[in-house]
Model the fold of this input.
Amino acid sequence: MLLTAGNFSIGHFNTMTVAWGSLGVMWNKPFALVVVRPSRYTFDFVNQYPDFTLTAFSKEFHKDLSYLGKISGRDEDKVAQTGLHFCASKTVGSPIFEEAELVIECKKTYWNDLILDNFHDKSALKAHENKNTHRMYFGEIIHLEGVEKFVNN
Done:
């Protein structure tokens, strides 16, 4: 999936590929949980803005998502190098993508940094060897839409 945060109307946003996270119910509301390292350019956008979006794509866009996960928006307009196109979301300021098969629009509700001393499974510490520890963001899902394969019949 792509995590995107910022403000589409003023052109201040960034996107990154995410693989770690979850969906569920928290505080009696549907939520999405994403984790972002402070070294990622998108980190500043998720911190600054009150919402974020998650978008999923068909396998046809796998190469584009891989590229977006490796290249920083600090260095170039990385989306221009792909077949993807930003567009306005339905309910939040952060943009979505025209080509997305699933769109999840979220309003931030909580964040916290992972605390390395709290890991019971010490093998998970390998992902944090350089102390570039992820921050968790909970977002209330306020809008969700997708192609037919995502619709619950």
